[in-house]
């Protein structure tokens, strides 16, 4: 039989009470006012007290295998060191009696981060300025003298030059190895400067106009080649050897002053990577070989110019650096001689007279003016290039005892750079007027020359400060190759030659007249005609 309904309801209520009591014994009841969010927060707090948190450190983001360069440059170490230094500065130490001491923060000059070469240039300069300020502060406190770091120097962001790299390679090689000697001798030649000298001789050689009598009647004047490969080979080889000889003699003369300047203290003679006897033999051998190659392979005039350049650079410019600031003008003359060598080499191939220096360099018909204009370009370029360069390291020049306008007369240093920057405009116009280039060269070179003049004006007004020295230096670095390329691209008659070589010469119409090349043949024809008339 089925029990009454009231009995069933009472049993269900008893079962529910029993279950609730059992739950109270196992898990404590949560108050009704407690929310789910409060439970989650409290559980996280209790877990943090028992289990240490696993936070992502800075090294997590740079430890990836896809970023070996970042990891190799020490970004992880710098980040961790900054974090540890911050924690150490904020921590407090407790004494033995329970009282807390004050926070102590220790800093030193060695904590400054080294300059990272992978940074952007402006970030690198900022780091250098901070390092310079820290070094100056340390010098003021300790009273010691340290080399002045000038982050505004135009070459502050440049990588080591070829001579320094070759000297480093020689230092890493064994003492008596062939690699050590070869690298040291190549470092003596100043490879980058030698390449610039050779290029400044090749461009005028390529731009020399070929006279019309050298071409055949079937070809136009402009269709004949203007270069002789053999002459060009001797010209480049001889000029390279002469430049290497002059640079080696320069290093032989001033190893003591080179050791006092950061730009030159890595040269091979300063580091004793090569003996003085070996350097002398290298300089003399290159000088003799270079002048002989120019004499027999080109002409005596070019050989004399090469020998004169060695004498001026090693015998006049280098000693004058200790005596007077006039040395800059003598060095500019040295820079202007290689273009004359290239022009005289090309003029010697088409000489109609005895081929002496008078005909090659001072022709009566004015054909040698182009060579002197190129020499003027290289002469004038030395000043807007060297003046800002020397300004950045003027204190080192002064400490080494080398007299430069950058520290003897800074105001005149800026005026000279501006004066010779203005000279480029008439020089470029002169190349067009003398028939070396098209008149379009005078127009296309104007923006480049205006840029150089503008940077020179800022350098003159600010006397090298506020980045004006850096701006003029880099403007001069780009100015010269752009001018040379523009001149080569707009050589007189070059594009006309290209047009005629592609599409050919226009054919002349026949006017119906007989042309007799031989007078006897013409007389025979006339007699035949007269005989025919008499018979009629």
UniProtKB/TrEMBL annotation:
The chain crosses the membrane at residues 193-210, 230-253, 274-296, 302-320, 327-348, 422-442, 471-489. GO terms for cellular component: mitochondrial membrane. PROSITE patterns: UBIA. Its EC number is 2.5.1.-. GO terms for biological process: heme A biosynthetic process. Residues 76-161 are annotated as: Disordered. Pfam families: UbiA. InterPro entries: Protohaem_IX_farnesylTrfase, Protohaem_IX_farnesylTrfase_mt, UbiA_prenyltransferase, UbiA_prenylTrfase_CS, UbiA_sf. This is Protoheme IX farnesyltransferase, mitochondrial. It comes from Sordaria brevicollis.
